[in-house]
Amino acid sequence: MTTLFVATTGGHLAQLHSLSERIPADGPAVWVTSRNEQSTSMLAERDVVYVPPVGGRSVPGVLRCLPIAHRLWRDRGITRAISTGSGIALGFLPYLAARGVECHYIESAARVNSPSLTGRLLRWVPRVRVYTQYPHAAGHGWRHGGSQFDGYRATAAGRPLGDRLRVVVTVGASAYPFRRMIESLVPLLEPDGALHRATGLPVEVLWQTGPAAVDDLPIQTKPYLPITQLAEALSSADVVISHSGTGSVLLAFDAGKAPVVVTRQRRFGEAIDDHQRQLATELGRRGLVLHRELGEITVDDLLVARSTAVGTLREPPPFQLSRTPAKAALMRSTTPEIVTVDPRKDSRWAELSAGPQGSVFTSQPWLEAVCQTYGFTPEARIAVDASGAVAGGFAWVRVRDIRGERLCSLPFSDWADPFAPTETVWHQLTNGVVDQGIPIALRCLRSEAPVRDPRLREAGRLAWHATRLDAPLPELHQRISATARRNISAAERNGVRISADTGVEALRNFHRMQVRLRKHKYRMLAQPMEFFENIWEQFHSGDSVVTMTAHVGDEPVAAAVFLQWNGVLHFKFGSSLQDRLRLRPNDAIYWAAIRWAVERGLRLVDWGVSDLDQPGLLHFKRKYADDEKQVVALRSPGESSTTRSEVDDLLGGITGLLTDESISDDITGKAGSLLYRYFC
Which pLDDT value is given to residue 107? Predict the structure, then answer.
């Protein structure tokens, strides 16, 4: 039994080298790659066959690999082949698969939302198994075996300041120039620049600039560095600033650094596509990098990165390769094992919530924020099939208070679809939960099995709207209604200015406005400020919570809170001053959100749910949305409780008193902190 590891140099080889440590050995190993300083140093102790480089989309380069693949199969007895790409994988895996070799293609971690051209081609090659490193991208032939980044964790660094600040700036080994990055950093890092002035310490910078023409800039540069020298420089650096390339960030992680990253853009000729933004967003979500736009990096960003370290787990989880032939898998038992877990901590729940049926409301950060605020303890059941794969899941919170005992799936969520691919799995997940005699409530957007469950009844419906970001911004502008376009122009003429702020203070300002709106317009209480602070704590890594505020002059007139999760920007909370609506601030916010999402490579803006008896709100969202569905609210039938009805009437009366015009907004806000938990 001999395993062949195949990868192009750069980030592909770095990933395969790291992943190979997490793939169970199966006899001796042979490596195939091209010769350069990285590969010769990284694979110095390995059995390596060096081949000519295979250029991007080079058919001749792929064809030159075929006789090498044949000789290795014949002479070395290859029984398993594993590749992370790129083009070199096409020269080996299809041929070896045709010879009966067990072949696995692991898509690059840089491909967060969609596969590369190599991956799309290999997806259709018989007997080549393809893997994504992201649970949400699994399906349609793609398996999720784990992530390159599962072995890393961010921690506080606690490094004392020395007599100088050492900074490494790296654009990696790409053949595409990235002058914009270098140029934008010069004022920040040059002698007597912003970093020096802010800290009072001399700044020593290693500029690794690649092929960019930077001779006119006042810096000493090194176009390329041997990997051993770059790794040594990263280890001794206080701060690392990098392009969002997989190989570069892995080098920084292995040096214990959490880099500030910026992304290359195709439109400037800096990359073949814009996948770097997706990677930067994912790494930011994990807290491993600080993702910033060019020109927006501040001294504070550099100091935050300096105070963050990246460590490696002593025993990272194995990368799971599928070893079961498809026919045998179909013959195995279809009855899954049901296990009970804490969905805030279980990796299998994280995999489900990051998949196509998941949403921000089933995500671990959202669950943690809700439970921290209100003292809930969530429960979940997960269905695991005979091969160990996750087949489904269902989560809920058990609430016991003055309104009685009840189950909610999940509190304060627009919807929280169970992961139930079939009615059989749904019943296995909920036996003894739905039918235990305790009232249960859930909302479903996509799941059909609960809706057909005779143990539940429909309690109402809500409208859900979204905008697909599957076109360039000018085309998206034409897709929204003519009325929306006129209102956006009117807002601009009226002097409405939108700021997008990822800090917690912006959430506090929004909360004050929301307390005022809900009190004076709806006679309702607002969620406590603690809830918003917990949301920020859970989502602020990678700028995954953003408050968009509409200003006229210095006056904030409207605001909205958005959460980014899994390639989707979720509109969650909104508020506005009613006497300023004629200025069209909400139209300006909606359009700013679409632009913000497009700039970050997201695939959807989710506008949330609306009551069907709110025609004005429905009309407003339909101006922007190109997808509309209904969320079904479900409840278990049962006799109504007289005591609960009396308590509900009492809470309603108290709410009415505490939202009276004579009560100060501060008191009304504090009332929300005391009473809002009872409204779930």
Answer: 95
